[in-house]
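Protocol step 4 of 5: obtain the predicted structure for the target chain.
Materials: sequence only (see below). No template structures provided, no constraints applied. The aim of this step is simply to have a reference model before the mutagenesis design in step 5. Sequence pasted as it appears in the construct record:
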Amino acid sequence: MNAPAIDWHARAAALRIDGRILIDGQRRDAASGQAFDCVSPIAGRVLGSVARGAQADVDAAVASARRAFDDARWAGKPPAARKRVLQRFAEAILAARDELALLETLDMGKPIQFSLAVDVPSAARCIAWYAEAVDKIYDEIAPTPANALALITREPVGVIGAIVPWNYPMIMAAWKLGPALAAGNSVVLKPSEKSPLTALRLAELALQAGLPPGVFNVVPGYGHEAGEALALHMDVDAIGFTGSTRTGRRMLEYAGRSNLKRVFNELGGKSAFIVFDDCGEVARAARTAADSIFFNQGQSCNAPSRVLVHERVADEFMAVVAAQVPNWPPADPLAPATTLGALVDEGQMRTVLGYIESGVAEGARCAAGGRQVRAETGGFYVEPTVFDGVAPTMKIAREEIFGPVLSVIRFKTETEALRIANDSPYGLQASVWSDNIHRAHRVARALRAGTVHVNQYDEDDITVPFGGYKQSGNGRDKSLHAFDKVTELKTTWLRINPRGD
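Step 4 output (structure tokens):
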């Protein structure tokens, strides 16, 4: 027998939000007593009050994390013991699936079906994977002369500040938490003020799973207050930041102004999606591009917002993309069938609409969408939008829009396509569509991007690194490579006495 359908609106109405800070295993109000409204973009409803963390709260959280690290309540546990706790944490995330999915959807407007099917299981999978990895990473012995022994060991960095964005709050938090906690670090997490709710709940679930108090602290608040205080803190050893390139620059400045803490930035993107005329599946390429740019309302740093199509197949490509637009109607995110929900807030909606106006003003042809819709709900919705005839110099071709807007650029030659694709300050992801294996490899090697997809897009797994070239950031989230960010390498030299007994 099928389980009865969940009435998500009823659950949302009954939900009670606890927006207080979590430090040293305890909930508390901000030291200032200040708070801000958490507003759902679905209909502009205030979900509850969230503590407005600032310098004093960050100081308390960092002090708690430092005590936890220094007394080795977590870092001193054997890897197998840390693994068991993190496994229970992952299981707790899955057990709280409905609650976390509802919080995620209410907080940032994504459809409930995707919160359930993508965000919650992806976060749990990340924590579980790093739990399994932690007791399978070996240290090294260097090939030194016979009279010496050099041991190379990994040690936790110490206190890590994690600042995560609003578009995938749970997944981004898990990408930072998984390797950091597995390696034995303590963490202070600053979620976006636009979507803080699941981060606070994750911290409670971690405590219930057995993570010692003080090891994982959460301070919600504004970036210019709590985020800046965390990045400038003299007792934070590393910052893991995901967000805009503009703020990523500030993270590096803050490190220079404080203790030269290591900074790992995962920043913006303007990913090029290149379709050549020898692609035998132009229709699949078009469907893939549409699905990838409209998913999560286009609020993905790796969204293929720059599509380069050879002029011989461009009309076919555009026809298929236009046919996909009706599959993504903006609708109620709490309805199980909805595929495209609300943008995160009014400011983001105005930004997206401004880019659409810019595209029209600069001469691109708006082939589909382009308008705000569902304004009567009080929420923030924009139609899926497709531009054709885009020039590489236009704002919509160069700047990150972070909305459901696809820009199609037509090209004539492989050389031209590569020049356009690489002529960007970003280098996060790219895609090549061609049935010519030589061209596919040639172009993939020439593209300056952290991930290059061939004849597909958005394939993803925790086992592969995620990050970019150029102003898309440095370092990598996911995979075993993420341990490089949260560990120090120590060399220990031993002199071996050559005289035997």
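Step 4 remarks: The longest helix spans residues 112-133. The two ends are 77 Å apart (CA to CA).
Proceed to step 5.
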